[in-house]
Amino acid sequence: MMYFKAFLVGGLICLLAQVILDNSKYSPGHVLSGFTVAGGILGGLGFYDRLIAWAGAGATVPISSFGNALVKGALQEAGDRGLVGVLTGMFHTTSAGITAAIVFAFFTAVVFNPKS
Amino acid sequence: MVKVKQGTTEESAQAAYTELVKKAEPKPPRLRNALYAFFTGGAVCLTGELITDFWEAVLGVSHKRAGDHTVVTLIFIGALLTGLGVFDKLARRAGAGLAVPVTGFANAMASSALEFKREGLVFGVGGRMFQLAGAVIVFGVTTAFVVGVLASLAQYFTG
Amino acid sequence: MVAKNRLGLQTVRLEHPPTIKAHAAVAGPMEAQGPLGHEFDHTYADLMMGQQSFEKAERLMLKDACHLALERAGLSATTPEIDYFVAGDLLNQIISSTFSALSLSIPFFGLYGACSTLCESLSVASVLIDGGYADRVLCATCSHNATAERQYRYPNEYGGQRKPYAQWTVTGAGALVVAAEGPGPRITHVTTGKVIDMGIKDPFDQGAAMAPAAVDTIYAHLSDTGRCVDDYDLIVTGDLARFGREMAVKLAAERGLSLGETYKDCGVLVYDNTKQDVHSGGSGCGCSAIVTCGHLLKEMERGKIRRMLLVATGALLSPTTFQQGENIPAIAHAVAIEV
After folding, report:
1. What does CATH list as the number for C186-338?
2. Is B68 helix (H, G, I), strand (E, B) or coil?
């Protein structure tokens, strides 16, 4: 059942992005940045976690979850350490993704060559 | 020969032309793109759920922890497909279905790093890696900062 | 006091029309698979062409086209008796042309006209020769899909979707030896374009951005020379592609010009839209270059075209101007060629 919900929510988020891309002059960069900000705001309001609980990977895999994770990390640490926690806590959960992206991108560049 | 209508200002001529272009511009196959985006995006997220279950079982970690492993796995796959020259061909059809999941982030980083390797490891790979993906990080972090500060201040003043 | 060879506002009538003594076109794999593939003098199997980078491959194409043209003109490639090398391309600081000029060792004028460079260089060459300042000039231009993508748009492996009106930068180079005397098609008139901005902002919609410039130059040419559309067997634009061509026909009609069967576009001719995934069609300096040097001039030599108006079009944007929210201005240069 979770599989179906993940498929549905993930698909809908991507569908929304596609509709925006096809009906406006916004670039993918704009849309993805917008989704990240949206994920952050929804995360701050507490809605994104509910979506994750319901749809699992359907909510954690899209880029919007990156915004949510950054906000959650900031809020969690801020709860423990006060205002400075906003700065120290942000990358707690997201560091895996960013580090992986940097390292894998680097090795991709070393191993492969661009074609067309 | 008939000349351009006298009395039209440059601005209204521009406006008239851009209107003409907007109406005549061929539109993308919107329904087809939407369907492809939905099914590909759904499939990628479904795969993510399967991968999470896999890591949960294999590593014996909680479902939540396994989510981190899933993100890393999907990034690896995105980078690999980019290096193999396959990602861009798939994304031509799938559109947002591959761009919105974290695979798109991996592709943005890997394709930039790969493209600029000719300019060397430092200036090319290192310097240009974040060219496309940087915006997402900048906006994500800034949003988290603003939300974090606002929430902290709200808590401070109310509790 | 008007200079004696000037006609109207933008045209020069060449007193001693220079001849196109030799021409050569080389192209990449996609162009080889297109409808004109068999017309090119040499095609490469892939975009790297055995070089270390795409930029070096583009340079190789330009040099190869130049060497072939020089050979055909009966001139040596090592000590060519050429007075000027007039060339340009799309890359920052026109490095394909400058580095090729380095190896050719001919006095060099570098040009930037974006995709209008072919006609810009033919224009400069023609006035240099007609004015008695040169006997032989080598003109050349080139473009490469991967170098254009990585400079102007996205990394080549980036998974973005292209809009249906987007164009595909041609991988190819064309070179011509223009001479004061000898047999061959002759350049009779040169019409120099003005930069035109009709409000287009989308960098993927270059056809629509360039169409007004093309129509403006064609109109200026016809009105300066007193000719009409039917005086030409062929009016051909450089790279408006399918959608841009449609806009050009509409704009021309608004000015009383009826562009019909005799109006073609190199961006439409160079690819087979039904089989190749090129959306609106081809673009780039190489587009007009390979279609002209590989096909159109040969058609003139075969007697199928007697008088042709070649109108190369260029979109004069840069990533900076686009990101700063500016419109896309464009220019079109025309040369009239007849046998």
Report:
1. 3.40.47.40
2. helix
Reported as a pLDDT band with limits 50, 70 and 90, residue A116 is: low
Helices (H), chain A: 2-23, 28-44, 47-55, 57-60, 64-81, 85-89, 91-111
Contact C155 A114 (CB under 8 A): yes
C155 touches chain A (CB under 8 A): yes
Q: Which of C51, C54, C157 to mutate to test the interface with A (most CBs of A within 10 A)?
A: C157
Q: How far apart are CA C69 and CA C100, in angstroms?
A: 14
Residue C52: closest C-alpha in chain A: A113
Give the DSSP letter string of C115-181.
Answer: GGHHHHHHHHHHHHHHTTS-SEEEEEEEE-HHHHHHHHS--TT--PPPPTT-EEE--EEEEEEEESS
Q: How far is A38 from chain B (nearest CA, A)?
A: 9
* Percent of chain B scoring above 70 in pLDDT: 94
Q: Where are the domains of chain A?
A: 2-111
B125 touches chain C (CB under 8 A): no
The token pair at C146 is 């991967």
What subunits touch chain B, counting only 3 or more CB pairs under 8 A?
A, C
Report the CATH fold assignment for C6-179.
Peroxisomal Thiolase; Chain A, domain 1 (3.40.47)
> CA of C287 to nearest chain A CA: how many angstroms apart?
18
pLDDT, tens only, C213-228: 999 999 999 999 999 9
Residue C149 pLDDT: 94
For residue B4, pLDDT over 60 is answered with no
CA atoms within 13 A on the CB side of C10: 18
ipTM above 0.90, yes or no: yes
DSSP-based three-state secondary structure for B110: helix
**Which tokens sit at A81?**
């350490």
Between A and B, how many CB-CB pairs are < 8 A?
A: 268
Identify the bridge partners of residue A62 per DSSP, sorted by sequence position.
B101
The full set of domain ranges for chain C reads 6-179, 186-338
| A contact chains, 3+ CB pairs < 8 A | B, C
Average pLDDT over residues B76-105: 96
At C240-294, the pLDDT tens digits run 999 999 999 999 999 999 999 999 999 999 999 999 999 999 999 999 999 999 9
